[in-house]
Write a structure and sequence with these properties.
Order of helices and strands: EHEHEHEEHEEHHHEHHEHHH
Strand content: 15-25%
CATH superfamily: Spore Coat Polysaccharide Biosynthesis Protein SpsA, Chain A
Radius of gyration: 18 Å
Number of helices: 12
Structural class: alpha/beta
Helix content: 25-40%
Number of strands: 9
Largest sheet: 9 strands, mixed
Length: 262
């Protein structure tokens, strides 16, 4: 297998110092795929990197918005599979190859996601406590007896956002266009995975750390915690799985995970 009917679409925003590292990680993939870039904040930095690495750049008109930006990226992939790549993060050189191996055995899956490790202070790993807990909660997706069951797919998501959107590869030809429909901002990925969990089809896991997400003060996640958007939306998501009295108990412990960004 030398190619993969797949596209990485990078969502570039403002002038991230990490964007080039993301691009390089995609260029180093052991299995050839397509790479595109989109932005709603065009500038010389983004244009320069797109030109340097010969990546097609598409500009979305209008104010920046996570859902609109992600749908713009998603819709610009004209392949069967696609990944919305976030500019601050890094992909292991085997990401596409390992996904392709999984997909060959499960061609009708809805999406595939990999394990992941944080980048803190410029260094990859080690796993923090949140990362370890999330990995345990994801384990049913490793097995065919569970990853096609709506009950187990929802169970994987019922105790928190255990899947990271940039690590996910979407089966676009099945899911259809403009798939991000959530009204939430911070929890748009969690809500989107809940949407997939309610559908017929498999949610697959490659249980290898093939994606590295950056934790730093400039990250959008940090902003949502400070303005309490995350806490409000986490409550909304937990309410999709549990009665209110259980949600209150869960949130007492769940907010402690926010210290990851301290």
């Amino acid at each position: 297998m030398k190619t993969f009917d797949h596209t990485f679409v990078i969502c570039a925003y403002k002038e991230s110092e990490h964007l080039e590292k993301c691009i390089k990680s995609l260029k180093k993939q052991t299995l050839k795929t397509n790479i595109k870039m989109v932005t709603s904040t065009p500038n010389d930095h983004i244009r320069g990197l797109a030109e340097k690495y010969e990546i097609p750049l598409f500009i979305r008109e209008g104010a920046s918005d996570i859902r609109d930006d992600w749908n713009f990226a998603y819709d610009h992939a004209d392949t069967e599979w696609m990944t919305v790549a976030h500019q601050d993060d890094v992909y292991d050189h085997r990401y596409a190859e390992e996904l392709a191996k999984k997909i060959v055995r499960n061609p009708d899956a809805l999406f595939v996601i990999t394990d992941y490790i944080p980048i803190k202070n410029g260094e990859i790993g080690p796993r923090d406590i949140n990362c370890k807990i999330q990995r345990i909660l994801r384990w049913p997706l490793k097995f065919g007896i569970f990853n096609g069951s709506k009950f187990w797919k929802k169970a994987v998501l019922s105790l928190g956002s255990t899947l990271k959107c940039p690590a996910a590869c979407y089966h676009k030809s099945i899911l259809g266009p403009s798939f991000f429909t959530s009204e939430l901002k911070f929890c748009i990925d969690w809500d989107t995975f809940y949407k997939i969990a309610c559908m017929n089809g498999r949610m697959l896991l490659v249980d290898k750390p093939l994606f590295y997400y950056r934790v730093y003060d400039g990250a959008t996640s940090k902003e949502w915690i400070v303005n309490h958007t995350r806490e409000r939306e986490d409550r909304i998501m937990f309410s999709k799985f549990w009665p209110k009295w259980i949600v209150r108990i869960i949130m007492v412990f769940y907010v402690k995970a926010y210290k990851t960004y301290d």
